Amino acid sequence: MPSAPTRELETFANPEPRRDYTIRMQIPEFTCLCPRTGQPDFATLDLEYVPDQRCVELKSLKLYIWSFRDRGAFHEAVTNEIADHLNAAVGARYLRLAARFNVRGGIATTVVAERRQPGWQPAPPVTLP
């Protein structure tokens, strides 16, 4: 069955909803189009989140990311849009998306978007000797 881009994000039940743990993903092949020139923009997306009740299914995430390939979008807008969609799908306790765009016109851009459930606090950091 051939795959096609989709705007749908599938999720599954978090196997450990009583615990805070971090899921980290790196998506090195993100592309969208510059809304002014129509030229492609390339980025690496670094996603990390602390799931609550749901986790994102990886193939659906891949197909979702693919759906941006032919869309014009400013870096700031597309980063926040993806963070909003991911957070709406999984309802993360904490979600951070960093979009590191390749150099365009001599400027490399990184946009970071964070979402957090009200009242959620991370555990204090552990310092090891």
Question: How is this structure best described in words?
Answer:
The protein is an alpha+beta fold and 129 residues long. It has one domain (11-116): GTP Cyclohydrolase I, domain 2. The chain contains two helices and six strands, in the order ββββααββ. It has helices spanning 58-66, 75-90; strands at 11-13, 23-33, 40-50, 54-56, 94-104, 107-116. The strands form two sheets. It has a four-stranded antiparallel beta sheet, covered by helices on one side. The protein has a two-stranded antiparallel ribbon with strand order 1-4. Strand 2 (23-33) and strand 3 form a beta hairpin. The radius of gyration is 16 Å and the shape is globular.
**Amount of helix:** 10-25%
* CATH T-level fold name: GTP Cyclohydrolase I, domain 2
The backbone outline, from C-alpha atoms, is globular
- Give the strand order of the largest sheet, numbering strands 1, 2, ... along the chain: 2-3-5-6
- The CATH H-level homologous superfamily: GTP cyclohydrolase I, C-terminal domain/NADPH-dependent 7-cyano-7-deazaguanine reductase, N-terminal domain
Q: Would you identify the CATH architecture?
A: 2-Layer Sandwich
Number of domains: 1
CATH class: Alpha Beta
Q: Helix/strand-derived class?
A: alpha+beta
What oligomeric state do these chains adopt? single chain
Number of strands: 6
Strand content: 35-45%
Sequence of secondary-structure elements? EEEEHHEE
Question: Low-confidence spans: pLDDT under 50, at least 5 residues?
Answer: none
Number of helices: 2
Radius of gyration: 16 Å
- In angstroms, what separates the terminal alpha carbons? 52 Å
Give the averaged pLDDT, no decimals: 95
**Biggest pleated sheet:** 4 strands, antiparallel
